[in-house]
Design brief:
Helix content is 52%, strand content 10%. The protein is α+β, with helices and mostly antiparallel strands. The protein folds into 2 domains: 91 residues, Glutaredoxin, CATH 3.40.30.10; 139 residues, Glutathione S-transferase Yfyf (Class Pi), Chain A, domain 2 (Up-down Bundle), CATH 1.20.1050. It has a 4-stranded mixed β-sheet with strand order 2-1-5-6, with helices on one face. A two-stranded antiparallel sheet has the order 3-4. β3 and β4 form a beta hairpin. GO terms for molecular function: transferase activity. This is Glutathione S-transferase-like protein ustS. InterPro entries: Glutathione-S-Trfase_C_sf, Glutathione_S-Trfase_N, GST_UstS-like_C, Thioredoxin-like_sf.
């Protein structure tokens, strides 16, 4: 068991604990490659201390100093510790070339461009999803999440959620973002159902990670998820079902 990768994730109160879209990217990646790993759960306030202990560099620098985030992994085979899902995917491809490739040769630039273009399509989602996320966190993480997000947005999480007619307008913007991504897939459908054709790649796991996040925080029986399931002829529910085999939580 000495070669088992340690995968650091953020727990929740949900069954199975996993919820974070960013850490789901790495879980999908590890399962896709079939690499042995174990999950260590880390509450939000403990991420910086853990990262420093492992010698992991900050993932960003802000006005309040360095920021440490998950996912992160420690690979005892090489003695490597690193954070950030795309960097982890690139490391796993390079270190384990005989496993399925997340970013196949020739696709690195394309996938990086896709991820950069994909994230803005999610912008209308934050006002709905962040307050819902806060409700499924353990107490220490809940306090941290609320404090930091309210500082970012300048309002309480409760006030972040639109109501009445404004809610309908903003929710329609969320759907429009998914319509954009669906349009990208439609342009490539002659090559296969996934972003680079017939084989799964990291781009697919990025989209799946944000979609499973919504399913987790709202629940399968919620009005929000029931609505999302109908979008784009049921593409997103089907997308997750296709990737269920990579959802194992170890």
């Amino acid at each position: 068991m000495s070669n088992v990768i340690t995968f650091y994730d953020i727990p929740s109160t949900l069954p199975g604990k996993a919820w974070s879209p960013n850490t789901w990217k790495t879980r999908y990646s590890l399962n896709f490659k079939g690499l042995p790993y174990k999950t260590v759960w880390v509450e939000y306030p403990d991420i910086a201390e853990l990262s420093k202990k492992l010698g992991i560099a900050p993932t960003s620098e802000g006005p309040n100093g360095p920021s440490y985030t998950l996912p992160a992994i420690y690979d005892p085979t090489t003695g490597t510790a690193l954070a950030e899902s795309t960097a982890i995917a690139e490391y796993l491809d390079k270190t384990y070339p005989d496993t399925p490739q997340l970013l196949p040769p020739g696709s690195h630039s394309l996938q990086h461009v896709f991820i950069s273009a994909y994230m803005p399509t999610l912008a209308p989602l934050w006002q709905f999803a962040l307050p819902a996320t806060n409700k499924i966190l353990n107490p220490r993480s809940e306090e941290y999440f609320r404090r930091t997000r309210e500082a970012t947005f300048g309002k309480t999480l409760e006030d972040l959620v639109p109501s009445g007619a404004a809610r309908e307008v903003e929710w329609a913007k969320v759907k429009s973002g998914y319509d954009v991504v669906d349009g990208w897939l439609q342009k490539n459908k002659a090559s296969g159902p996934y972003f680079l054709g017939k084989e799964h790649t990291f781009a697919d796991f990025v989209v799946a990670s944000f979609t499973i996040w919504l399913k987790k925080i709202w629940g399968e029986d919620s009005p929000e998820w029931k609505d999302i399931k109908t979008w784009n002829e049921g593409r997103w529910d089907a997308f997750l079902k296709e990737l269920e085999k990579y959802e194992t939580i170890l």
